[in-house]
C-alpha cells in the first residue's frame, strides 16, 4: 500500500508492505438510487491485515451483515478511500466479523463504482 502527499515544493511518500494468505476484491457498480444491494465478503477482525475501500462517482452508505439492523454503518464519500492496515494508527472500522455488505448509492443520477481490496489471513 502506498500513500503520498505533495504540494508545490515538497512530497512525502510511504509504502507499507503487507503480505497475507488470502485476498478479497470487490468491483461492483451501483445504479442510481440502488438500495441495500448485497455484496458478499467474508472476514473476521482477527483475519484482517489491510483494507482499502473506495466509492467513485458518488457517496455510498455501507452497512454490514444486515440491511435493517447492521453491525456497522459507514458513509463512503466520493473519491475518498477508507484505508486501514494492521499496526497502523487508525482503529479498525468494523466492530465484528463481516459476511455481507449492504450498499446504497446515495446519488439519484450517477452510477457509482464500489471497490474493496482486502488482505486477510485465510487461517484466522
Structure explained in plain terms:
With 124 residues, this protein is mostly beta strands. The chain has one domain (23-120): Jelly Rolls. Helix content is 0%, strand content 52%. It contains no helices and ten strands. The chain has a four-stranded antiparallel beta sheet, with no helix packed on it. The mean pLDDT is 93.
CATH fold type:
Jelly Rolls
Q: Please identify which CATH superfamily we are dealing with.
A: Jelly Rolls
| Rounded Rg | 15 Å
Name of the top-level CATH class = Mainly Beta
Number of domains: 1
Question: Could you list the spans in which at least 5 consecutive residues all have pLDDT below 50?
Answer: none
Shape: globular
Q: Look at the helices and sheets and give the structural class.
A: mainly beta
CATH architect. name = Sandwich
Main-sheet strand order equals 3-10-5-8
Strand content range: over 45%
Number of strands: 10
Cα(first) to Cα(last) distance is: 22 Å
* Helix proportion range: under 10%
H/E topology pattern: EEEEEEEEEE
Helix count, per DSSP?
Answer: 0
